[in-house]
Amino acid sequence: MSCWETIADYGLRSIGIGERVLPREGYTLCQQFTLIGSGMIWNIYFGVLALCSGFFLATAVALGKASTNPVLQKASAWFIFLFRGSPLFIQFFFAYFLFLTLKPISPFFNPFTSAWLGALIVLFLNTAAYSGEIFYGALQSVPKGDIEAADAYGMSGWSRFRRITWPTMLRLAWPAYTNEAIFLFHATTLVYFSGFPAWQQRGDALYYANFFADKTFNPFVPYPILAFYFIILTLLIISLFGLINRRLNRHLPQDVRGKMKLKLNVIR
Amino acid sequence: MFSFCVDPASLDGLAWMACYLTTGKHMAIYTSLFTVLLLLAITAPSALIFGFLGASSARSPFPPLSWIGKAYIAIVRGVPDIAFFLFFVIALDQLFEWIRHEIKCPDWEADIWQGNDFVVCDIAKLPLGNAPQWVHETYGFFLAVLTFAIVFGAFAANVLYGAMRAVPHNQLETAESYGMNRRQVFWRILVPQMWVFALPGLSNLWMVLIKATPLLFLLGVEDIVYWARELGGSKTARFTDYPHGDWRMWYFLALLIFYLLFTRVSEIVLDKLMLKLTHGQATLAGEAQRKAAA
């Protein structure tokens, strides 16, 4: 079987298209590259959707934590503490068994016990909490002069937020937010190890890498392949976020703008 | 455990709960809480040592050594840490067995990777096939600790590398002008001063380390996640004196609360420590303390 056939058979295996049975023998490099790559579809699905939806909740939570209303303030602070203070792994387990308990109550909860929705909700809330804290920090360091200038121009309320506060907040938060995006994509690998079943062996990249490591008892091939895919993904994220950063700072003079000084932390 | 627990079927309410929560298996989950604490107590210092080695080799003047250090720091950034956990546990195990194999059975002809199996001679197996259960468990735990130390050592190396560069350069130049050599400057000037710069990063790392402990479950150690799944699953009256439905949700809720409390306590302690360390330092925070006192 040539490599093209393998790609045709297993390229979209993780979403249920192509050959049903996973390879039973050979475990060639081509098979490993194709299947692990096909698993990346799920990592990207979880990461992109959670990031896009989490962004809005994160803004809301950051505003809530910075607000003067004590109820909103406490609620947002607790939300952030709850999701930042506990391991994501335990959050996945808890959510899965919670949905499992709710399932007999109403068929409405059926899709929640499968990874594509249940795990997505956990990731959405988790990233909203982490980015909410980042945005809150940025909101606190918006220069006082910017707000005063806006006041002097007669802006207030929504238009001041939309045109001055929010863009400045994003500009300040962007390097840290890039970091959060990278870690969110890394966190997506936990999904299929935390209770959520991989239905019909449709799993993510780590699920297949683990499958090959178990079958061949040789970790030195599948895990470096996984690492290769993730390094490419990380580089993609960095360049994409760099482009957005350039747009955010387009009003600045060329020499000040420079490149995004990514203070890339290794830890979340 | 209690004297009234002889016939659980006749109990109800609080008494039933008291007996249920003190069964032998529940003692195992409480012990596994200590496994987590033990892991943290061993991993934190060993990760710090790995980190220190990584950071000092990254700033070494000898290029190959500094490449190794920088690669060690950089590699964990692009790849999910859970992949490292899964990788190192098997890789380290095979490495140890292979080394023992080379030493103990030098006249072994066959290949080590035979098709889809990893085969070493019997006396090179780790732990030995006839070893008691506790040896197997300890060996597993040891591998897990080593894996944690390697992965978190890379994180710590990054923090310490940054802290070493944050120490004001004048301090090092002054030391050199006093006639100290490289080694003396490193040990007498750089290392004592870098900790206050490293502490914010290290406390962040401690939080991440706490939150990584449930991953022990993936490394095959019988930890709290394992026991929560075991004990929480529904039990019928045939197999246990304490039948109940699917309670796994509540067990994981308890774990969630345990971790939240743990994080909160760590936060408070680390804040106190930072306050102590910044006292009298020539940094913004130290200056603020001085002004507040005056």
CATH topology of chain A: MetI-like fold
Can you give the mean pLDDT of chain B? 82
Q: What distance lies between the first and last C-alpha atoms of chain A, to the nearest angstrom? A: 43 Å
Strand elements of chain B, count: 2
Name some characteristics of this structure.
heterodimer, A: 268 residues, mainly alpha, MetI-like fold, 10 helices, 0% strand, globular, B: 294 residues, two-stranded antiparallel ribbon, 2 strands, 1% strand
Description:
The complex is a heterodimer of chains A (about 270) and B (about 290). Chain A has about 270 residues and is mainly α. Chain A has one domain: MetI-like fold (Orthogonal Bundle). Chain A is built from 10 helices and no strands. The longest helix of chain A is centred in the N-terminal third of the chain and has 38 residues, at about 30-65. Chain A starts with a helix and ends in an 11-residue tail after the last helix. The mean pLDDT of chain A is about 90. Chain B is mainly α and about 290 residues long. Chain B has a single domain, classed as MetI-like fold. Helices cover about 70% and strands about 0% of the residues of chain B. Chain B has 10 helices and 2 strands, in the order H-H-H-H-E-E-H-H-H-H-H-H. Chain B has helices at about 15-20, 25-60, 65-80, 80-105, 135-165, 170-175, 180-210, 225-230, 250-280, 285-294; strands spanning about 115, 115-120. In chain B, strands 1-2 form a two-stranded antiparallel ribbon. In chain B, helix 2 packs across helix 3 and helix 7 (about 180-210) runs antiparallel to helix 9. The longest helix of chain B is centred in the N-terminal third of the chain and has 35 residues, at about 25-60. Chain B is flat. The termini of chain B are far apart.
